[in-house]
Amino acid sequence: MNNKQLFKWFLRVTGAMTVLFLCGIISILLYCYTLGAPSLKSEQNTLFYDEAEQVIGVEHGEENRYGIAIDEMDPTFVQATLLTEDKRFYQHWGFDFKRIVAAIYHNVRQLTKAQGASTITQQYARNLYLTHEKTWLRKWKEAMYAIRLEMFYDKDTILEGYLNTIYYGHGAYGIEAASHYYFAKEADELTIAEGSMLAAIPKGPSYYSPHTHYDNAKQRQELILNTLKEEQVITKQQWRQAKEAPIQLASQQQNKEQRFAPYFQDVVVQEAAQILDIDTEAVRSGGYHIYTSLNTDTQRELERAIEAEMGISEQMQIGVVSMNPQTGAIVALVGGRAYADSSYNRAVQAKRMPGSTFKPLLYYAALEHGYTPATTLLSKPTDFKLEDGTVYEPSNYNGYYAYDPITLAQAVALSDNIYAVKTNLFLEEETLVKTANHMGIKSDLPAVPSLALGTASVSVMDMVSSYSLFANGGKEIHPHVIKKITNDKGDVIYKQQVENQKQILNEKNAYVMTNLLTGMFDESLNDYMKVTGASIAGQLTKPFAGKSGTTQTDSWMIGYSTEVVTGIWTGYDDNKAIEQVKEHQYAKDIWATYMEKIHENSSFHSFPPPKGVVGVYIDPHSGQRATPYCASKRLSYFVKGTEPEAYCEQHLPSDGEADERNKEDGKRGWLDFFF
């Protein structure tokens, strides 16, 4: 073959290879185009806000990520990153061939792979879609993704995504997370010195971390500052100042996650997962902004009250829910003494026996079936023979009994067990079960006589929800902690709907029940023992309604105003018996301290009665209308038409008093004054 033939053959082969190469390139481009735009969705931190829209917490998966817009980043930092990582980023189409050739030449000379040539687009593709394994298959996939990114997105979008996903060490991904971790500030607040320090890290996050290798980080920072000066991004004066500026790193203590209201935040994650129909991990790393119902000041007051009353070393546990009864919004929540020791949420997950706090549900049913605050039943030791032939023998606290008829008003205030069991049997046990379920108790409840004394297991959340119906006049509510959710772009994807509330309790009887529940603090109802709220009544300056309850292993206090319902359970996780008097008192003391504090500036002063309810002063013991000769009297409320008509005849004037009154009033009987 002569030279002419050889040249022709070379031209044909070269031409064929060029055609094949161009066809290959076109095929790759067409293939990438048909695949469409790759998703830019990546894991991002989810932020929680309180009701005032202040950040209260950050949730993330294994990686700590924030997503921010490029105009929220320090411009000098952005330029430092471009000059360091990919100087020709805005000129190439995803691959810097000049840099690739230079890297190959350098690596061949050094016989090592000391230099890489990945562009920002390639690194972004790797960060978003791939692992960091060093294989040809991964390189090929990286190239395909890089082409698609450049094909469907503009340069600023790619750069913004890269700066939000690049790894800066210590679990921080993206400039915002890195800025928080290293300097405890927002990315747009970085100084030139700080921004150039952060730009130094991605080359080797472990080697250039200023927390672990400050000298290495400082040396590379100065190289970057020199480049910024040479490229006239910064002035010589700025270069000098940044080079000499002291670097104040955030302390490791600052970087320790300090979660505010952690039990509440866990409830937020669970609720968000249900709303969005995703798993909890997807909530934590989905970049959502979740606006909650938490009142930060109220939460702090609750935590202070717990610490003040129980101390920091007390081994008893606690569960608290504080709710707005008008809306169902949870304003404060505590699920235990120390989240770091146990994340088990006793406010929503635990189910414990509520004791006498269950009685108001029974007594509401009784009001629906003809009882009034003046209804009397005999309080004495009683054996109840049941249909199956067994005998049930309940007893009162410490064996105290009136040995006399007492009114429903006293039975509530004194927490008389005999009265409660008699009422439950009179109504038939299924009535209480149906009433409790209707009022939001989700637990399986046995239709047995002892249910009247709170022997089934329920959650604090459910009990607070049921009491909210008394506080709001019987309107249905849905307990919730989330008001609104937006995605990482700020689009609203969920908003709590304000609906017309369904009336599920009789408004009049709900109010009568509320009035009955104020009795635990009213010592005019004292009888064979003091009212159950006597120990805290002196602390209260507003007319709260409430009910306490105790079992061998549980202590409860649930009470409310028109604005807030708060339920507290205290006890031991292992069901250890509560033996000390002070331990039984914790729930009441915490409740009183907390409720008084959060109502200091409240406009709440009374529970206004609805139409169709009338107030009558009655003798607490007889249930009849009070006279001037009754030792005590109480303003009780009745559904109009059910109030007592007869006046008390148990407390009559002495003969001398009666004669004197007759003389003064024309010899009329003293009862004449009331007709």
What are the SSEs and their pairings?
Layout: H1 3-35, E1 46-49, E2 55-59, E3 64-65, H2 75-85, H3 97-110, H4 120-129, H5 136-152, H6 155-165, E4 172-173, H7 175-183, H8 192-199, H9 214-230, H10 236-244, H11 252-255, H12 262-276, H13 280-284, E5 289-292, H14 296-310, E6 317-323, E7 330-334, H15 359-368, E8 376-379, E9 384-385, E10 391-392, E11 404-407, H16 408-414, H17 417-427, H18 429-438, H19 460-471, E12 482-486, E13 492-495, H20 507-517, H21 534-537, E14 545-550, E15 554-560, E16 565-571, H22 581-598, E17 613-618, E18 634-639, H23 655-664
Parallel strand pairs: 1-5, 3-4
Antiparallel strand pairs: 1-2, 5-12, 6-7, 6-16, 8-11, 9-10, 12-13, 14-15, 15-16, 17-18
Organism: Pontibacillus litoralis JSM 072002
Main location: membrane
Subcellular location: Cell membrane
